[in-house]
Amino acid sequence: MSASASSPASFDLIGVGSPIMDLLAPVPLEFLAQHVAGDKGGMVLVNDAEMSAILAHLPAAPETSSGGSAANATVNAARLGLRATYLGKLGNCAVAAAYRARFAELGIDTSRFKTGDVPNARSLILTTPDADRTMRTDLGAAMTLSPDEITAADFASCRHLHMEGYLVFNEALADAVLAAARAAGCTVSVDLASFEVINATRPWIFKQLATGIDIVFANEDEIRALFEDKTSGFDELARRLASHGVTAAVKVGKDGAWIAQGDELHRIEPVAVANVIDTNGAGDSWAAGFLSAHLRGKSLAESGRIASHVGAATVQHLGPIIPDDQFKALTERLATLA
Predict the structure, then answer these.
(1) pLDDT (tens digit per residue) in 81-136
(2) Does any domain span residue 50?
(3) Which pLDDT band holds residue 269 (cuts at 50, 70, 90)?
(4) Which range of residues forms the domain containing residue 248?
(5) 316 CB contacts (<8 Å, ≥6 apart)?
(6) Distance between CA 268 and CA 1 in Å, rounded?
(7) How far apart, in whole angstroms, are the C-alpha atoms of residue 299 and residue 294?
(8) Is the pLDDT of residue 322 over 80?
(9) Model's pTM, two decimal places?
(10) Per residue in 31-58, pLDDT tens?
(11) Are the C-beta atoms of 56 and 148 separated by less than 8 Å?
């Protein structure tokens, strides 16, 4: 499917973010203390030399998977039946070619990728035995995406934009994306992505909330960082976020989620998982499940219930992409929820 063949509303969803190749590495807790600067958990940007230094100390070569927060959400939303396209900047290397090919295999429109003249972005995801993930990311070509490259034409024939919060590290770029999407008539969701993003860009986030965002996804660390509140209940924090005129989806891991919109508040029960392997990408999958239902007109409670199942399926294997056999079982479960 190409953009030139598109008719109005050809795409339910356009994801925007950094097309990153994930490098997946299980490590013991002591590895972080010995070889990784910064706090456990979350995401920190590194340069090529810093990335190479960490890779050199890994106990085994990492596995690879297409990644990036909005990209993960777009992949799973497409697998759940949404018509999807994606905007991000690929590199000039074999990694970028493999990334584009994977999207095309899944039926995701690839015509809105842009191409840089440096290698593709990559993210090292270090998963510890507690299933927590610590990410160190070299943005490569993705970092060279310029606000000048973004126009409303990039969002033509798209119903909904889903943007990853990591893009907000470049506030001018995030502004350009949101302005162009709004000009094209898209509704908008933003995943806050990381407490580091929020701590660095809190004034920008509140400015954009005032301008108009339709859906905000946040986990427990992110919602507490946003409101600088370590004690309030997540139901109260969801309501506080919703008071800014958004649908607030607050994910609280194994405890489920809260969804607030206007006067509505929904407790989303968790889906129990006996053996959590890796939480990387679970929040992205949750967003994909929610959007796949919400954009088809499902209620907030129904959308949250579907999201919970998709997120739970993601933590039962290494990496953010649910294996095909497990995805088939997931879609069969989801069919019983209708």
Answers:
(1) 999 999 999 999 988 999 999 999 999 999 999 999 999 999 999 999 998 889 99
(2) no
(3) very high
(4) 8-18+68-117+140-337
(5) 273, 275, 276, 277, 326
(6) 36
(7) 7
(8) yes
(9) 0.89
(10) 999 999 988 988 888 988 899 999 999 9
(11) no
Residue with tokens 């004690």: 231
Q: Tell me the C-alpha distance between 5 and 227, whole Å.
A: 44
* Residue 11 Cα distances to 74, 86, 155, 295, 334, angstroms: 11, 10, 9, 11, 22
Which CATH number belongs to the domain containing residue 159 in this structure?
Answer: 3.40.1190.20
Assess contact for 92 and 116: CB atoms under 8 A: yes
d(CA 202, CA 321): 30
**1-27: average pLDDT:** 78
Exposed / middle / buried, residue 288 (Cβ in 10 Å: 0-12, 13-18, 19+): buried
Number of domain units in the chain: 1
Enumerate residues 6+ apart whose C-beta is below 8 A from 78.
Answer: 13, 84, 106, 107, 108
Angle of helix 171-183 versus helix 195-211 axis, rounded to 10: 40
Does 100 fall in a domain? yes
Decide: helix, strand or coil at residue 106. coil
Q: Are 83 and 10 in contact (CB under 8 A)?
A: yes
In a domain, residue 88? The reply is yes
What is the distance between the alpha carbons of residues 197 and 216, in angstroms, rounded to a whole number?
Answer: 14
Q: What is the DSSP string of 32-43?
A: HHHH--S-SSEE
